[in-house]
Amino acid sequence: MRKFFRKLPSWISNNNRLIIFIAGIIVGGIFLFLSLRNVDIGEMFKSLTKANYWYILLSIFILMFSHYLRALRWQIFLAPIKIINSRSLFSALVIGYAANTFVPAHLGDFLRAFVLGKRHNIYTSKTFASIVLERIVDILYKNKLCRL
Description:
mainly alpha; 2 domains; 79% helix; 0% strand; extended
């Protein structure tokens, strides 16, 4: 159980950590209930037995490979600032994308810059500038693809 509490700041007491953990479980349970309340569970399991899970595995592999290529590209953008291994970049990238799932307006990109800045002692503004550059390159590339 202690493994889950290590990531919280040290100024939060153990009792408060337990309260935060339990509150997270309760909030997650409430949202799980809200999302499944109008679902016919029998029909859902029937559909799940018919599903082809190889497609899911293939899509996860393609998604992770795509994220890894993005991490390598980000490594090139960050090279003038600091050389960072692709594993750290991949980790920060996935954290940022996961946060983008739950927060509006791509605010996960700020988290991505913050995480990488803290881990590798780089100014967050520099890492965020590389993310802005990455987004600009994405837009230019997509624009070029649309013109083909």
